[in-house]
Fold this sequence. Notes:
The chain is α/β, with parallel strands linked by helices and about 200 residues long. The chain has helices at about 1-10, 55-65, 75-85, 155-160, 185-195; strands at about 15-20, 45-50, 70, 90-95, 115-120, 145, 165-170, 175-180, 180-185. The longest helix is centred in the first third of the chain and has 11 residues, at about 55-65. The chain is globular and about 45 Å long.
Amino acid sequence: MKFNQNREEVEKLPVDFLGFIFYPKSKRFVGENTEPGLFNSAKTKVAVFVDENAFEILGLTKNLGFEFVQLHGKENPKTCLLLKDQGLKVIKAFNLSEKFQFEKLREYETTVDYFLFDTKTELPGGSGKKFNWEILEKYQGTVPFFLSGGIGPEDAEAIKKLQHPRLFGIDLNSGFEDEPGVKNVGKLKEFITRITM
């Protein structure tokens, strides 16, 4: 029951979203047989997928009461719009590098609710590494975004200095874990305190 207990502890903090990984190759995969009550969260729950069939996503999110999906694969705008039209809020992740072409985001602007900008890696999933945040200055779109990729407790001051008008939220993952899927509540609490001061 450690995941359930950890979730409940995290929920006591001023966080808005809780992510649950439904990608079987991830070391944070919630599994086929999850702990009872794991998804009984009062926070906004985000189901994370990588190149999953849209109808599988719809079935799972409906059965488990998810309102948000986060897509980390090669999902096209048509897939995103299908999910959005079914009432889901869609976060589409893109891995950024110095060569990233922000023009490719235009076709997603009417099909998603948020972008998530992560570090470019060879395989899906977190790398624990940051990308050059100066790249964000090239993003001139209208869709708000989450910042992700290698963020740790030491980054609070640098994030506070980011002035991008579309920065909506911060995705905190491996830099705040004791083990895959188990957050260090003390680190989270300290970071939230520093970033909101």
